[in-house]
Design a protein that fits this description.
- This is Kynureninase.
- By secondary structure, the chain is an alpha/beta fold.
- It folds into 2 domains: 133 residues, Aspartate Aminotransferase, domain 1 (Alpha-Beta Complex), CATH 3.90.1150.10; 226 residues, Type I PLP-dependent aspartate aminotransferase-like (Major domain) (Aspartate Aminotransferase, domain 2).
- The chain is built from 15 helices and 15 strands.
- The strands form 4 sheets. A 7-stranded mixed beta sheet has the order 4-10-9-8-7-5-6, sandwiched between helices. Strands 11-12-15-14 form a 4-stranded antiparallel beta sheet, covered by helices on one side. Strands 1-3 form a two-stranded antiparallel sheet.
- Strand 7, helix 8 and strand 8 form a beta-alpha-beta unit.
- Helix 2 packs across helix 11.
- The radius of gyration is 22 Å and the shape is globular.
- The model has no long low-confidence stretch (mean pLDDT 98).
- Bound molecules: pyridoxal-5'-phosphate (PLP) and (2S)-2-amino-4-(2-amino-3-hydroxyphenyl)-4-oxobutanoic acid (3DJ).
- (2S)-2-amino-4-(2-amino-3-hydroxyphenyl)-4-oxobutanoic acid binds next to loops.
Amino acid sequence: MDFSRTKALFDLPEGVIYLDGNSLGAMPRGVPERVEALLREEWAAQLIRGWNACGWMDMPARLGDRVGRLIGAAPGSVVMGDTLSVKVHQALAAALPMRPDRRVILSDSGNFPSDLYMAQGLAGLLGQGHEIRTPDPQDVEAAITDEVAVLMLTEVDYRTGRRHEMARLTAKAHAHGALTIWDLAHSAGAVPVDLAAVDADFAVGCTYKYLNGGPGAPAFIYVAPRLVDAVEATLSGWLGHAEPFAFAPDYAPAPGVGRMRVGTPPVLALAALEVALDIWDEVDMGALRAASVALSERFIAGVEARCAGVTLASPRDATLRGSQVSFRHPQGYAVMQALIAEGVIGDFRQPDIMRFGFTPLYLDAGDIDRAVDILADILATGRWDRPAFHARKAVT
Ligand SMILES: Cc1ncc(COP(=O)(O)O)c(C=O)c1O
Ligand SMILES: Nc1c(O)cccc1C(=O)C[C@H](N)C(=O)O
């Protein structure tokens, strides 16, 4: 795929350089037409018949297979639905009873808070004395011991972009008898992932970031085919039942990953995601990664050569990074607001991190050079230091 052509597939505001696809991806041009067609030709015209006539009920599995191709998951091992936080709960609730004699959930201090909150909530609900350990990311490997029931990590750190070595950590977890849950929120569509090759047990992720599924797009969950039939689905909703339309009083899990479905699929959101996946179907993840590394390296080189007062917060070695680069600045929030005001959109994470995401589908070298020019000028002139740029917004 020629990435110089893919930018035209996205609807980006004129003059904006969008470096926040690591938080919310850009909109593929075909989304409004597809969603409108679904509203008019499917919902309005077909009404309840749409579930059969338009294939709505199969969307979680159909789209799951298309996401699966991007993360090295075999057909039939990924299903879409709910939010990522819910999928973290489901994966952990499925994994812990598979290690009934162990009480340690091992994560890291850099994990996204929602993953840790979900683990805390589940541990409380289970009331079995599970302990959540969160060493610093570089100390995780040493903390994998025979006490660990589940190793639950986000592959790419949302703040720094630091990337865990999934194959090595999974192998070590297995050698110590632990199961693994990988959160691929900042990996899917960002870096090549091969769940089957690394022999991962569970994986979860969202589709509103690099995959460009839109705000609130549904999450996905992967369960290794060798495990799935032993998985007890604790969020045992009717659409994870083997025969939902038998309306039996007792739960019986669907075969395979279908048991990780819960309730009615979000059809409108899945339709938007489907348009994004039409683009992803053509993408070679190796080529995308090479383009992402080139853009990231260009940005780091430009910023370090021309911007005073910022320090790199991401690993310098590209092989240890995802598809984002973060810089620290003591007034990072205000600097980021000034950048956004001038059309360069990134974001900020406490306490001082400016994040920049690199999405080769709709960014090119010229965008990177312009972003560096603008950042250098904002820092050199100090024009970030205005009251309006210090005022905190609710969503950062
Ligand atoms: C790594 C990670 N896990 C979990 C979440 C939470 O996802 P959601 O809000 O879709 O539940 C996010 C982002 O918000 C994330 O980046
Ligand atoms: N999911 C988000 C939202 O609903 C609003 C604002 C931001 C988000 C995010 O995804 C944040 C993101 N996980 C992060 O890496 O910080």
